[in-house]
Amino acid sequence: MAAGLRYVMKNGLYSIHVKLLDGRVGKGSGVIVFRDGKILGGDAYLYYTGSYVVKDNTFKGEVLVQRHTSPRGDDNPLFGGPVAVGIGLTGTFTDTRGDMTGTALVGKASQIFGATLHKLADAD
Q1: CB 46 within 8 A of CB 80
Q2: What residue ranges define each of the domains in the chain, with the CATH number in brackets?
Q3: What DSSP line would sit under 45-95, residue for residue?
């Protein structure tokens, strides 16, 4: 970021593209709304609710991921078991995109992931 330039995380609807890290294989995509400290989103099988705080051009938060529809066929949604999954996340942002990492506690195993966010629409 250029000296003196400061981004403000704007309320908005973002696409989210998630990829597992730590040598694990898995990815997922959906949409997510960041609005006034609240997070709401989902995809074909899961929905997300949570909160975040912003400091400078970074944010941190927590999300609860829950399944709304059982997977079909060979589909295997990330964090998509019948039990809700808690996730801690941190990230950085500009005015149109963000990058974040998180850790999901799935059963007794931690899954580390990375995600990119692309702003689709304002949410003011």
Answers
A1: yes
A2: 12-122 (2.40.128.380)
A3: SEEEEEEEEEETTEEEEEEEEEESS---TT---TT-SSS-EEEEEEEEE-S
Q: Are 14 and 115 in contact, with CB atoms under 8 Å apart?
A: no
Give the phi and the psi of residue 107 in degrees, each rounded to 5. 65, -120
Instruction: Report the predicted TM-score, pTM, of the whole model to 2 decimal places.
Output: 0.87
Q: What does the pLDDT profile of the chain (124 residues) look like in tens digits?
A: 445 555 567 899 999 999 999 887 778 899 999 999 999 999 999 999 999 999 988 999 999 999 999 888 887 777 767 888 999 999 999 888 999 999 998 878 888 999 999 999 998 8
Interatomic CA distance for residues 15 and 1, integer angstroms: 23
Residue 26 CB partners (closer than 8 Å, separation 6+):
19, 20, 76, 78
